[in-house]
Design a protein that fits this description.
Blueprint lengths: L1 H10 L4 E5 L2 H4 L14 H10 L3 E7 L28 H18 L10 E6 L7 H21 L6 E4 L7 E6 L3 H10 L6 E5 L11 E3 L2 H13 L4 E4 L34 H15 L1 H6 L6 E2 L4 E7 L4 E7 L5 E5 L2 E5 L3 E6 L2 E5 L20 E8 L14 E3 L6 H4 L5 E10 L3 E11 L1 E6 L2 E5 L17 E8 L2 E10 L20 E8 L2 E2 L4 E5 L2 H4 L13 E2 L2 H4 L4 E8 L7 E4 L5 E6 L2 E7 L16 E3 L8 E4 L7 E8 L8
Parallel strand pairs: 1-2, 2-3, 3-4, 4-5, 5-6, 6-8
Antiparallel strand pairs: 7-32, 9-10, 10-11, 11-14, 12-13, 14-15, 16-27, 16-28, 17-26, 18-23, 18-26, 19-22, 19-24, 20-21, 20-23, 24-25, 28-34, 29-33, 30-31, 30-34
Helix pairs in contact: 7-8
């Protein structure tokens, strides 16, 4: 997809693209590096150069980005005595080893060597955690800057929202013009660069889809340039898809972000509208670069004019920061300024209005179903741990539950917990898991009984808090019962604030205790990582090793089913998705490639207060994500879609 994405970006008026570097993907095992296929960073930068685009490389290695563990490899947790993103020698040794390796890899691509990379970023948004680490955090940040200087990049170093000497500090937000004055006071020798202009927002399971209007995005960008901003990067311009298990905790597989280029790389109304703004800025780039930052001319209480002019040309930004339209005078001409908008007036002519979307730029996209596309459906039952083949068992037994990541090392979402206990009488009661994350499916005596209530909370606070306790109402007969819990991780956190602790403390599964009513279950626990279907690679060659069965009511009405769907490649043009309405929660593979987690939990929560009147929500009550991307390059003439369904569901027809 890269050539077409880059072509469209250039066509829409971008002159630079920015990408993060995903340490968590490039070094999934310590010392084993992967830059193949869609991880071919060198090729991506070369392609950008071919399309006439510069590159800003955000090395991190902490990148946040709604990616698993904020872009850090999960194996860091197992480094002795490590604390992440503070002055900690074990962390700094690993970080420096990786960063030096990466810089040697990309050095020919640096502008100082004739390549396309014009800026590099180390660390990211340190201000979010600075108060937690105090003086040690600032000492770490200075070390990062010194490392950057020692790398001899030959291009400027930037740090986004939280920087130290030796790096250009850049800005984040929905709007950056309110930050510009303070930035110039703090850094009079630095340009005003807005490395994250948010054109939308990401989605998390259980919450509505987020959108932001094209007009408001254009207003934010034009307003920033008017006030003297010198560089804007859209985060995201194109977000794409979180394939595999690459999304952070709760993040949807789609990373559409309501970005100008949608998840499938298609242009949108937003990209078309912004392209018009970019054209004007390019046409007047010389004027904008040659002139000093202008002083604003007041046109009203919340209205301003910024004028850039030389002997032959002028560009004036008429800015209305207020919520209502207003009439103002430009010279002797009366002009109506729309609410919350910027007019760009070039040489006396209105060239662009951020509030007005040209009818020819409006794009509508819908999903068109392919009738009778699925040719065959069959299934295989994932067994409970006691029925696993002996050769696949690797259970750990202990008097207390063992935290999941210490067993799975984040190589799977799944871990089984089993124990037994007795009740003297038939009774109704509450099974409570105290110290648990993320989703629990409860089986009693081999029967699926309950699952975690939704929605889960993105920022859960302390491990001792209520967000890490889950309760299930059960009816039990008298006698001994086996309680089996399938613990399902839904991605690792992206930052400390999500658990109110250093990232190394991230936990999954059951690490506390389980209680039946007020009685702690004290019997031995058995813990078994993963699934039989994962270990047997049912999504690949292992599919030939198990007895698949034809669809039946028995399969539909039971949890823990592997569904195998066969379909031929469509002759239809455009992106292909699978509609998973009717499924509940699990993982999906296309021809052996994991396309990500799916979860059809309904969107029931409202948006955060700080986003109101900027970000709007859609489809409350519907699944957060219903359609899942099937990339064209992973399709064959005959295709297999494999779904592991954790709960009771009806597969696509």
């Amino acid at each position: 997809m890269w050539p077409e994405l880059l072509r469209q970006s250039k066509e829409a008026g971008l002159n630079t693209v920015e990408t993060y570097v995903f340490w968590n993907l490039h070094e999934q095992e310590r010392g084993v590096f992967d830059f193949s296929d869609r991880l071919d960073l060198f090729h991506f930068c070369e392609l950008a150069e071919q399309y006439g685009l510069h590159v800003i490389l955000r090395i991190g290695p902490y990148i946040c980005a709604e990616t698993n563990y904020g872009g850090l490899p999960a194996w860091l947790r197992e480094v002795p005595n490590i604390a992440i993103r503070t002055y900690n020698q074990p962390f700094m040794r690993e970080m420096e080893r990786w960063v030096r390796f990466l810089v040697d890899y990309i050095r020919p691509l640096l502008a100082s060597h004739g390549g396309p990379i014009i800026l590099a970023q180390l660390e990211n948004e340190y201000e979010n955690v600075a108060s937690r680490y105090g003086a040690e955090g600032q000492r770490y940040l200075r070390w990062v800057s010194e490392l950057g200087q020692a790398l001899n990049l030959g291009v400027p170093l930037v740090m986004c929202v939280g920087a130290t000497e030796g790096a250009i500090e850049t800005m984040n937000g929905f709007y950056a013009h309110p930050m510009l004055e303070q930035h110039i006071l703090n850094h009079p020798d630095q340009p005003g660069i807005w490395t994250e202009a948010w054109p939308g927002w990401y989605d998390t399971y259980g919450y509505p889809h987020h959108i932001r209007t094209p007009q408001d995005v254009a207003y934010g960008v034009a307003r920033f340039i008017a006030a003297g901003g010198t560089g804007v990067n859209y985060y995201m311009w194109h977000g794409g898809t979180n394939f595999g298990r690459e999304a952070m905790y709760l993040q949807t597989t789609s990373y559409d972000f309501n970005a100008p280029l949608n998840e499938f790389g298609q242009p949108t109304t937003k990209s078309q509208h912004l392209a018009g703004l970019h054209r004007v800025l390019h046409d007047y780039a010389g004027l904008l670069l040659e002139q000093e930052r202008p002083q604003p001319q007041a046109l009203g209480e919340q209205q301003w004019a910024y004028s850039y002019a030389n002997d032959t040309h002028s560009l004036t930004f008429l800015c209305n920061d207020g919520p209502l339209p207003i009439n103002c005078l430009l010279g002797e001409e009366k002009i109506e300024l729309p609410a919350h908008a910027v007019l760009l007036v070039g040489d006396g002519t209105i060239l662009y209005n951020t509030a007005e979307v040209d009818a020819t730029h409006t794009l509508q996209r819908t999903h068109q179903p392919l009738e009778q596309a699925i040719k065959r459906i069959d299934w295989y039952a994932e067994p409970l741990p006691e029925h696993w083949p002996v050769e696949l068992r690797s259970a750990t037994t202990a008097p207390q539950p063992v935290e999941q990541l210490s067993l799975t090392h984040d190589r799977t979402d799944y871990c089984w917990y089993s124990t037994t206990f007795s009740t003297s009488d038939a009774e109704e009661g509450t099974l409570s898991l105290i110290g648990f994350a993320d989703v629990a499916h409860i089986f009693v005596d081999g029967q699926f009984i309950a699952t975690s209530p939704t929605p889960l909370i993105e920022n859960r606070g302390s491990f001792e808090g209520s967000a890490f306790t889950q309760s299930f109402h059960l009816s039990l007969s008298a006698g001994q019962h086996e309680i089996t819990i399938l613990s399902c991780a839904v991605g690792l956190i992206k930052g400390d604030w999500m658990i109110d602790a250093n990232m190394v403390e991230e936990r999954k599964g059951l690490w506390g205790h389980a209680r039946w009513n007020s009685t702690v279950l004290e019997g031995n626990w058995s813990m078994q990582p993963g699934l039989v279907g994962e270990q047997a690679a049912l999504f690949a060659a292992g599919a030939a090793l198990v007895p698949w069965q034809q669809e039946s009511d028995e399969a539909i009405n039971q949890a823990l089913r592997w569904w195998r769907l066969s379909f031929n490649r469509s002759e239809a043009t455009g992106p292909l998705t699978v509609d998973l309405n009717g499924m509940q929660k699990g993982m999906a593979w296309l021809n052996g490639h994991c396309i990500g987690r799916y979860w059809l939990t309904p969107a029931t929560e409202e948006q955060a207060d700080w986003q109101k009147n900027i970000i709007f929500t859609q489809d409350t009550g519907s699944p957060t994500q219903r359609y899942y991307h099937l990339p064209q390059t992973w399709l064959q003439e005959e295709n297999t879609l494999l779904l592991f369904e954790e709960l009771v569901a009806i597969p696509p027809q």
